[in-house]
Amino acid sequence: MTFLKDVLLKPKSLENWPVLMLSQTKLQLFKFAALHILPKPLHLSTSSRTTKISCISLLKKCKSMQHLKQIQTQILITGLNQSGDILNKLMVCCADPSIGNLHYAERIFNYIDIPGLFIYNLMIKAFTKNGSFRKAVLLFRQLREEGLSPDNFTYPFVFKAIGCLGEVREGEKVYGFVVKSGLEFDTYVCNSLMDMYAEVGKVENFKQVFEEMPERDVVSWNILISGFVKCRRYEDAVDGFRLMQRQSSLMPDEATVVSTLSACTALKMLDLGKEIHRYVSEKLGFTIKIGNALVDMYCKCGHLSIARQIFYDMPIKTVICSTSMVSGYVNCGQLDEARELFERSPVRDIVLWTAMINGYVQFNRFDEAVALFREMQIRSVCPDRFTLVALLTGCAQSGTLEQGQWIHGYIDENKIAIDTVVGTALIEMYAKCGSIEKSLEIFNGLQEKDTASWTSIICGLAMNGKTSKALELFSEMEQTGIKPDDITFIGVLSACSHGGLVVEGRNHFTSMTKVYRIKPKLEHYGCLIDLLGRAGQLDEAEELIEKIPNVNNEVIIPLYGALLSACRTHGNVEMGERVAKRLVGIDSGDSSVHSLLANIYASADRWEDVMKVRRKMKKLGVKKVPGCSLVDVNGIVHEFLAGNASHQK
């Protein structure tokens, strides 16, 4: 009775004990306990005897966990638990998420004295699909310790688990076992190995595996293309698709099309996207995933009319394609159409809500963004970090500190983690609202700091005139080994400009190009010219503009505009006239050029020339754009134009 007592009292109850090898005494106790403890067994016809075939047939028809336990009871009562075939089928049912329970399957597995390779493979696959990647890898090690030889059904899910864990070295060890077992050219195993390398970003590794494969199926090509997309190697993904068309007789399937369309979207490669669209229409046929990908591609490539047509032709409109269409309308500035579609969408997930809120923020309709966020709360939709970042960005743009503080309070009250993404948005919001000390407090409190968070605080300090602190943190950033990007250097050069640090500015500009291999953009040249202009180094600034390679009007106008402003500050009439003539020759409709030239003449008491400039402005129909101010009154942002008394306030 001791054994039965243990069975009844231990947490692992008798119903979880399909043991392969039991003594006759223990087996009798199992039968006894099964009759009194386990769920009532299924009643088979009296004219038939319970056989292995009938039990397997019952397991194949099993639809629920309760049903499964009844069949298990029948197996124990009749002594068929000794059968390997029945045990295998029982484990298949237990590990099936639609029928069984993985925890229950694991408990049964732990009581099997000598599990076979089939059951090991089954459990490794179940753990991997369930997201229990560490357990899958540990089970693989146990399998080898038991002396079993893994096969081409074992390795794919082991590689999948390792890829999700990001453990490259472990994957390379497992690949060593693959080679020893002679499966290094098995297509199924190679595909899973490629997928693992793609998951951890090892592009050259999965390319090498692909190139060395003696046989490739459509999955091989799909993993190659999707791997490039995962690693943001979009040109390579397109090249992979073209290579598949040239070298393979295999037809691209849904996965091929969706991955390649993702690359087309990133590269704005509309011609290839249209080619794939024709292939889908003529040969492959539309699916929900392909429809979603096409809508997203056309929206992001600016062809909203085609995207709209595909969207309305889709028999089933998922929240994914609705989000793509809303984002498409937003990108084209059609916010009212975006809101109309948003309201019509039968399902609204957090991504769709965030897309609409972000649209309002993007076009400075911040009050509507906040109102939509409040509606979201009323509907009990929990925001994610991207929703909050969109709102904080709106606060930063409009300078509404009170709203930003309220959102910060919401984050704290709801115990939302301030990671690098949320932290960076908070740093930027407080900095742009003038609370730079609060920005520093948040920055110092971040457990992990990435390039974006360092850049945000450096730019914030620069715009608030904290030059020394900005450059100090930049030096600290370099020492920690975090690589600055082009935006970081905008903050650094801006700090040098505000502090009048000409030598340091030149050195950092050189470091950006020579050390970090960052190609200067308009903003970098603008900061350096502003720095030189403030310091009175006008000749050097003009020379710098003339040396910019491949210059175009979009770059030249703001740079010469900055130089013209410096000419006004330092009273350099001769250079001012020269620069103004160049600018007027490029864009005669820019009121700021005419206004700056008039002011330069005025500062030199050349009033006749001032009148000539103003008459020319009138003749050309150039009107000076009035200045405006944004004022936060009781949480509502009001815009006031200079010289306009029509505002209700």
Could you walk me through the main structural features you see in this protein, from its secondary elements to its overall organization?
70% of the residues lie in helices and 2% in strands. The protein has helices spanning 2-9, 24-36, 52-60, 65-78, 84-95, 102-110, 117-130, 133-145, 155-165, 168-180, 187-199, 203-212, 218-230, 234-247, 254-267, 270-284, 288-300, 304-313, 319-331, 335-344, 350-362, 366-378, 385-398, 401-413, 420-432, 436-445, 451-463, 467-479, 486-499, 502-514, 522-534, 538-547, 553-570, 573-586, 591-603, 607-620; strands at 628-633, 636-641. Strands 1-2 form a two-stranded antiparallel ribbon. The longest helix has 18 residues, at 553-570. The radius of gyration is 34 Å and the shape is elongated.
Strand and helix map with partners:
Elements: H1 2-9, H2 24-36, H3 52-60, H4 65-78, H5 84-95, H6 102-110, H7 117-130, H8 133-145, H9 155-165, H10 168-180, H11 187-199, H12 203-212, H13 218-230, H14 234-247, H15 254-267, H16 270-284, H17 288-300, H18 304-313, H19 319-331, H20 335-344, H21 350-362, H22 366-378, H23 385-398, H24 401-413, H25 420-432, H26 436-445, H27 451-463, H28 467-479, H29 486-499, H30 502-514, H31 522-534, H32 538-547, H33 553-570, H34 573-586, H35 591-603, H36 607-620, E1 628-633, E2 636-641
Antiparallel strand pairs: 1-2
Helix pairs in contact: 2-4, 3-5, 4-5, 5-7, 6-7, 7-8, 7-9, 8-9, 9-10, 9-11, 10-11, 11-12, 11-13, 12-13, 13-14, 13-15, 14-15, 15-16, 15-17, 16-17, 17-18, 17-19, 18-19, 19-20, 19-21, 20-21, 21-22, 21-23, 23-24, 23-25, 25-26, 25-27, 26-27, 27-28, 27-29, 28-29, 29-30, 29-31, 30-31, 31-32, ...
